[in-house]
Sequence to fold (611 residues):
Amino acid sequence: MSKSIKAPWRKYYDNEKSHLEYPNFSAYKLVEYTASKHLNNYSYNYYGNKKTYHEFLKQIDEVARSLKAIGVRHKDVVSICMPNTPEGIISFYACNKIGAIASMIHPLSAENEIKHYLNISRSEWLIAIDFTASKIDTIIHETKVKKVVTVSVSESMPPLVKSLYTASNVPKSIISFNPISYLHNDNSTSNFKISWKDFLRLGKDYTKEIYDDFKGKDVAAILYSGGTTGTPKGVELTNLNLNASALQNFEHVACLHDKDKVLAIMPIFHGFGLSVCIHCVQYFGGTSILLPQFNAKTFDKILKKYEPNVIVGVPTLFEAMTQNKNFNHMKLDYLTCVISGGDSLSIELKKKFDAWLSKHHSPTTIREGYGLTECCAASCFTPLNYYREGSIGIPYPDMYYKIVEDGTEKEVPYGTPGEIVIHGPTVMNGYIRNRKETHQTLRKHRDGRIWLHTGDQGVMDEDGFVYFKGRLKRMIITSGYCVYPNNIENVIDSHPDVRMSCVIGIPHPYKVTVPKAFIVLRDHKEPNEEILNSIKELVEKNLARFSWPYEYEFRYDLPKTRVGKIAYNVLIHEEKMKRNNKSFEPSEVLLEQVEDESTSDELLDKMKKDK
Fold:
């Protein structure tokens, strides 16, 4: 099959294999295989509570028996609404061991979002962090859930850390369910909710043998994709998807070693977190340092305490690190691999962070990856010994990329922009109970292969290096010209006074859409005409006239998604509300330079109808 697909990037693999052998068994079996070789390595570290692979397997087996004891069957869906805690990852692998499907839910989701996730997956079982109890209490009678297992973030903390956490979080820990809300459920209200400890006790009485007969093609997990607005879609990932991702990440990153400590900042309900920070690490025998919550301002203390070898994060994290003065005298020579993903890494931030790493005695540079939940997170990454400015790297082994004309399967010449499409073993099974969206995203081309249409714009050069140009839905068409927000952001971010920026399209009476730039300055500088004119001069020097922002707005900060990306959809929503004279709460507006706020009545009417 691979011979007929162009893969010019392979000449940059060096010692990397172009094809890997993928096991036809469960994600759990892959960890069990690793454990047999690294039984005494630490699987995870949770605030100093370390467990070896041998101990980790025992914990998985214990929870697997508890799941069977409460009635979970093969291919049942168990929702896991947990941050990065031992109970979260143990539950994931325990589900996998008994052949159940793990539906991974963000614990900070709103009530209706949780209800949607439970219903779309048809979950009958829920393992949830205790501070979600009041939300679950409100919606649970509208779902098919039979039993809820509640867990505290402090459950696996060492005694001293646990006592400190409990003292500062009492209100969260004592939230209880109101059984009256379960009267519409067929289950006994007294047995509906159980604590984690009671859940484990049930498993001690389950003595039947557990058969792990999950295969590669079987769906192992459901993750949710959908951005900051709209109804998220449930992405079905198989055992093959997860295992292939683990093997490919290890092979292509090419600087990971057993016993490496990997900072698991990215959450387990996110493809990046589950596949890269957890499953890949558990495959190569490393240690996942589990962090249930993250604060950029105290990140220096985290590094000082754990001395991780690998950091996986989004660009805003690395920007925050360069701004944290507590790092000034720290030596980071233990940091041997830094991976950026989840959002576009600007050329300027890469240069700045590489210099920052060198200043702090780290031997590595930041390397950018690209992927999406629909292909189990990363599937393209900057190779170890080759870097091309602005590139997101080359495809992983067994992953194939091509650039096609938008909305078609017609491949465009090298150097021509188009939609990124992907083929390979990590491409999802489909969207759960959404055949229409699945068929639009997974398309069978004339070559007989299934290609994932990403909805992302990109370019591939003749050597196979890929350049991300932005989301198709972010592309701005102004007076017939295509403008890519990322290109404008890269130029603005290169200004010495700019910390970060985001560009969106706003309506215009005759150009239809024009760019608007939101800017955050460095060191809390106050915006003024001099800085604004300097930024404009830089933009006008580096971009074609039709790409120039029509408006500039300075802010103290920009809205972020739960995983740290700049939430451009929030800015789009704010602009729509403002231009329709609706109230909104922007992120501390400082200064706005508006050249023309006039909008045609026709356009206003259309926006009102859209609203």
About this structure: The domain at 27-38+48-214 is CATH 3.40.50.980 (Rossmann fold). Confidence is low (pLDDT under 50) at residues 170-190, 587-611. The radius of gyration is 25 Å. The chain is about 30% helix and 25% strand.
